[in-house]
Design a protein that fits this description.
Blueprint lengths: L9 H10 L15 H15 L6 H42 L9 H14 L8 H22 L11 H12 L9 H22 L3
Helix pairs in contact: 3-4, 3-5, 3-6, 6-7
């Protein structure tokens, strides 16, 4: 059975895009009679990916910058929050030992936690902060790995690959990277990202 844009995931299409193997477009074996459905699916995907206007190289660089900027923000927030969490724990222990039971007030930490949730969708909770920070670190690792895979240092001056578009969209929307999202949901995200980019460009132009 051939998948639709509602059941085909980002990961499925990325694997097809890299290998050309149509098995990622279907559940079970593909038969000759399925070819019209395959062609229709690929046409739907092409339409969804083709709404981005402008020069290919320029958009590729824009997506690259958005992605690396997002990674840098996550790294900065991780380092800042981790340092404060470690210090806060130690200072609270000291205060308890000398009879000062009230914990230290770290207003910056509250702001970092808020920003982490905004940028990465991760809640840093008092009781599970160590596990939550590991989750954030894992997300940074995932973003970094995908960046290195899809934006090699020796970049060909060609159009954007599918995963380069994916990284740019997730970065623009400040969403956690999730390759299990359906293509139809991704196309909606891409439209939102393009609208955000358009508004930012209008602001930059002073309109």
């Amino acid at each position: 059975m051939v998948k639709s844009i509602h059941t085909l995931t980002i990961r499925d299409y990325s694997l097809f895009d890299k290998t050309g193997d149509m098995k990622y477009l279907a559940v079970g074996k593909i038969k000759k009679k399925n070819m019209p459905e395959i062609e229709a699916l690929l046409l739907d995907v092409a339409k969804g990916l083709g709404s981005d206007n402008g020069d290919g190289a320029m958009n590729k660089e824009k997506h690259r910058i958005e992605t690396v900027f997002h990674i840098q923000i996550l790294i900065t927030l991780y380092q800042a929050a981790y340092n404060l969490l470690i210090n806060k724990t130690q200072i609270d222990v000291w205060r308890t030992m000398i009879g000062k039971n009230k914990g230290s007030d770290y207003t910056n930490l509250i702001e970092y936690v808020r920003k982490i949730n905004e940028e990465a969708g991760i809640n840093i909770n008092p009781d599970t902060w160590d596990d939550d920070m590991i989750t954030l670190r894992d997300q940074i690792d995932l973003w970094t790995d995908r960046y290195n895979q899809n934006f090699p240092k020796q970049t060909e001056e060609a159009g954007m690959t599918f995963m380069q578009i994916v990284l740019g969209v997730f970065a623009a929307l400040k969403f956690p990277l999730n390759e299990d999202i359906s293509m139809s949901d991704f196309f909606e995200m891409k439209t939102q990202a393009e609208e955000i980019s358009r508004k930012m460009q209008l602001q930059a132009d002073g309109r």
